[in-house]
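Fill-in record for Premnaspirodiene oxygenase-like.
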Amino acid sequence: MPPGPWKLPIIGNLHQLIGVSMYHHKFTNLAKRHGPIVHLQICEISAVLISSPELAEHVLRTNELNFAQRPQLLDEDIIPYKGSSLIFCPYNDYWKHIRRITMSDLLGAKRIQTFKFVREAEVRNLVETIYGSSANVSINLSDQFYTLSNNIITRSVLGNKSNYQEEFRNALDHEMTKFVNLNF
């Protein structure tokens, strides 16, 4: 394994990452101290940090199949459809088949084009919201873009804008937070 910072038993380098709000700064400092390839142990997960774009491209190209698999972080009973969805399915022939269907039927050029009017209308609403806000009021663009994405997806899936957008967004935030917490 490449060099890395000192580790504690059981938790490895986890204690060095807790409380860090901007991981890219922490990873940059680790790369300066230990080189362009750094080994991190996060509990039982062994991770390699590659900080050079050229080196990352080389490693990913030569070891593509090794990196194509996702680590199984959750129990199959928690994952919808016993891990057979595109997101959780291991990289194999079934995954390739599901991806092909997704790309052609759900995310194909013709399908994307059918929702162009939704995207245009929602972007127009966003621009009007930003333009119409007071010059003295700051706008959280992250929230605005999150709402934009949510509105586009909701209108594309359900056919129109829901009266319960805020409630839906809060429920989605809650579920995403629970899901992310399960991974760590």
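KEY FINDING: The CA atoms of residues 129 and 135 lie 12 Å apart.
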